[in-house]
Automatic annotation (TrEMBL), chains A, B:
This is Endosomal/lysosomal proton channel TMEM175. Residues 22-42 are annotated as: Disordered. GO terms for cellular component: membrane. It is found in: Membrane. It comes from Carlito syrichta. Belongs to the TMEM175 family.
């Protein structure tokens, strides 16, 4: 059954062989777009083969890396949620400043780790299979990445001390070095490369290009580390470039395309730059990373509850007269808030899950919007902590409810934006079944619009009825899950009502009955104009 | 291309059709073993199909559930690692008792959540596809499970108060109720069932059997909840049955088989009970759950470090004279310990990954051993915390190093046991390529034996050289990763030495050279006997 390709001595089961029927090395080389299109997903796995030579499918290692990276991305929300506000203290300027700094640190860390994750995704689109050495190198890479949040928060805490910047840059350089090692190793043993690149005639060019991609961030950081000794602002500028350059250049390119019209770049250039800029992210890895973030955010809350909210036996005897029910009742609002928060995270995951069922591949814009949505999802424990603090500090309730509504709104509106962005290029991004609108489109739209609308309504309601803000917020959190359950029903109802209204406004001419005469009943209902 | 089966109006791409060439409903029904064998893995996914009707592949939902469950399983290690021991306090009896209780709570929680996870796995081997309602029901199920650790620790903190037991039982009952709802819903819309069960002629029998399986734990817990009002010990007994009954009955069955000889039970019984007792766990889900545990354990440490170990600017000015280097140096041992701990978790994951590359399916015994291995892996943050406490409390160093060695030893020896257990039934459990021994077997053996040996050597060394215990432990942690990298080389060297020694002991007769004459060179090396 195993057909071997005469061109590259590879089994003909590979995508490139199946789709084109020819080996790329034998016939004309595939365009880089095709190459990337084929290497977009997790590499195909054959369980038995290759095990003998120690070569393994990279699927499980990538899932594990995704899980690690998603946890690391969300870790800096902990200092935010654990910010101590003593009961006497007002929600005043100094606390607000501290919180704002920590939130900024969290968001930046999230972006930085996401950039590292995207680089990792790109790297393992090139490296298709792994062996023991690569698995160990990947573990080393992961360990270096776990230090990123720490060095970053060190940098922010001591913005004027070169050491913080220096350590952060060293961390990025170490990641780059390990990734360069991985690239070098994989190109030294070409059977580890993804089949499309292995079969390509431009092996060395790819190699140089990928190495350049992997090392451009570390090179900028090296410059930043050197500048940190003389003139710190330049360092910050260089580091900002590492994070934002890909997006800025993409945006500039897009604007130029719109203004000047699309100019086909020379073939040589295409090969070099499409790899970076137009490459779609692997849908599977976007899903795995998002799942990790949702899972850790949903459970960060129960981690806290399990540790802090089991009442102390001595405390129960002294404060509550031995009544466990009373002791648990005292932390009742915390459980209510946990329920609301888990439901929100869970349902946002559900909307994300529904969304990605329809998606075929994720463009870079969708990746960025998804990252922003996830970053705000990571802020949900903050919303939870704000809500559960009600029980202790009744004042400032209004502001806290509003912050929570705003976080939920932002998290859900960016998810909505992912869908909108996918609709701009339906042929590239959507599954064929959902490209042409219809009921599934309407349902998807309703699912994604539910949370933005609910949080917006809650926000407006708190403005009108300030005194009931907590009650409104909790009602919103409890009602939304039921709205999801009844969504299909509600949608059908809404469409029927809409059609009914439409029918009243522009009545259709009576359809001829089976006997050829006008249908009297519908004729009676819709008055002739 | 789409062939539709005339028997069950399902696409003929399904496993059952492909392997037998016939629809089970048309021909003789498959044996339950075959059914289970086929439904063992994640259901096959076709991306486009079914999207229109709202029916979805369950793959991503299951990964998300696995991620959530693995985090919930490991959560109770936090109270253990965060046990406050003030610097003046000796590692005395009261602390030891507190720690022992918390460790017991952690281990029991881990087992309970694993039982819930196994039930979830079994349930979604029956339910092959999902729709929106099922996804939402599954989220509800997950949320109920997140309360298990909390109610369990409440129960342990107040062993004599019925409320703790009552809440725990209510939690189990709620999980059972949601799962029963899922079963009912799936059997009401049979297109959601796994194809083997949908095509089976014994639909209602399966339905009753699965419902019975799902509800037996909750039924026992209901009894326990009622007994908690009269006589608490009976409640504990009933709850212990929920966790241990499947394993005990399996062990009893195995012993009976050995003693009496295997008696083929009547066909009616097989169908009812094999589902429960002999069913192999889905390999993919075992991997996903294990990955989740490894990922969360590896990062629990960095969560702590990121939150607690960023020095306070005021502190740096006052205590370290403004020198950030000195301040970071003070928490240096923590970083060293983190490095060691991450390396240990990462390499244990690596060994697990290598092990499961060779595994085709996991028996129940392997599942149990894997759970135990994971439970001790979850204990590694404890080992870390013990190690990082050295810097502050130099006394009791010896005991702490020994505890760490013991945890690492237990985690790795149970992993080794998984492999041994797989070797007992190689035809069922291993990939065909590795069933017959050889170099890959030796390498696997070496990989799995590395950590047990290293921790044992470190333990013995601390007994002999008590004064250098910390140095020994750190040396072990740093040396093991390099040993993994050089493992293939070392193994080849060891085999060569072994062969050399064997050659000296029983020299082989000289092989005839290409010319037919005895090969003089090898003849010179191996003296004639």
């Amino acid at each position: 059954m195993m057909l071997v390709c005469p061109g590259c001595a590879q089994p003909r089961l590979l995508q490139a062989h199946v789709t084109t029927g020819q080996c790329p090395t034998m016939s004309r080389p595939q365009t880089p777009e095709q190459v990337l299109d084929n290497s977009r997903d997790y590499p195909p796995c054959k369980t038995d083969e290759d095990v003998g030579e120690g070569i393994q499918c990279s699927h499980r290692m990538l899932s594990f890396s995704d899980a690690l990276l998603s946890i690391i991305a969300t870790v800096m929300i902990l200092p935010v949620t654990h910010t101590k506000i003593s009961p006497e203290q007002q929600f005043d300027k100094s606390i607000q400043k501290l919180l704002a700094t920590r939130i900024a640190v969290y968001l930046m860390t999230f972006l930085i780790v996401t950039v590292a994750w995207a680089a990792h995704t790109r790297l393992f689109q090139v490296v298709g299979k792994i062996d023991d050495t690569l698995a160990l190198l990947n573990l080393a890479c992961m360990m270096t990445i776990t230090f990123l949040p720490y060095t970053f928060s060190l940098m922010v805490t001591f913005p004027d001390v070169p050491l913080g910047i220096f350590l952060f840059c060293m961390c990025v350089i170490a990641i780059g070095a390990v990734q360069a090692l991985i690239v070098g190793y994989a190109f030294h043993f070409p059977h580890l490369l993804s089949p499309q690149i292995r079969c390509s005639a431009h092996g060395t060019r790819y190699w140089r290009h990928i190495l350049c991609l992997v090392l451009q961030g570390p090179a900028l950081c090296l410059a930043a580390a050197i500048f940190s000794l003389f003139f710190i602002p330049v360092s910050y500028l260089l580091m900002a470039m590492v994070v934002f350059l890909p997006y800025v250049s993409k945006a500039v390119g897009w604007c130029k395309d719109r203004l000047v019209g699309h100019v086909e770049p020379p073939a040589h250039q295409v090969e070099f730059f499409t790899f970076d800029l137009h490459e779609p992210l692997s849908k599977e890895r976007v899903e795995a990373f998002s799942d990790g973030v949702y899972a850790i955010v949903a459970t960060l809350l129960i981690l806290d509850i399990c540790e802090d909210n089991v009442p102390d036996p001595k405390d129960v005897t002294e404060r509550f007269g031995g009544s466990l029910v009373a002791a648990l009742g005292a932390s009742g609002p915390r459980f209510l808030a946990y329920f609301g928060s888990f439901a929100t995270v869970g349902l946002l995951w559900f909307a994300h899950h529904s969304l990605f069922l329809h998606v075929r591949k994720a463009t870079r814009a969708m990746g960025l919007l998804n990252t922003l949505a996830l970053a705000f999802v990571g802020g949900l424990p903050l919303a939870y902590q704000q809500t559960s603090a009600f029980a202790r500090q009744p004042h400032d309730e209004l502001e806290r409810v509003r912050v929570s509504c705003a976080i939920i709104f932002l998290a859900s509106i960016f998810q909505f934006a992912v869908w909108t962005s996918a609709l701009l290029q339906p042929v590239d991004t959507l599954q064929p079944a959902v490209r042409f609108g219809g009921a599934e489109h309407a349902l998807m739209f309703a699912k994604l619009a539910l949370y933005p609308c609910a949080s917006l309504v809650a926000f407006v309601a708190t403005c009108l009825l300030g005194g009931f803000s907590t009650a409104i917020f909790h009602a919103m959190q409890v009602a939304t899950p039921f709205a999801f359950l009844l969504l299909r029903l509600l949608l059908r109802l809404a469409l029927a009502v809409l059609r009914g209204l439409q029918g009243l406004a522009w009545p259709v001419p009576p359809a001829p009955g089976p006997t050829g005469e006008p249908d009297m009943q519908s004729g009676l209902l819709s008055a002739p104009c």
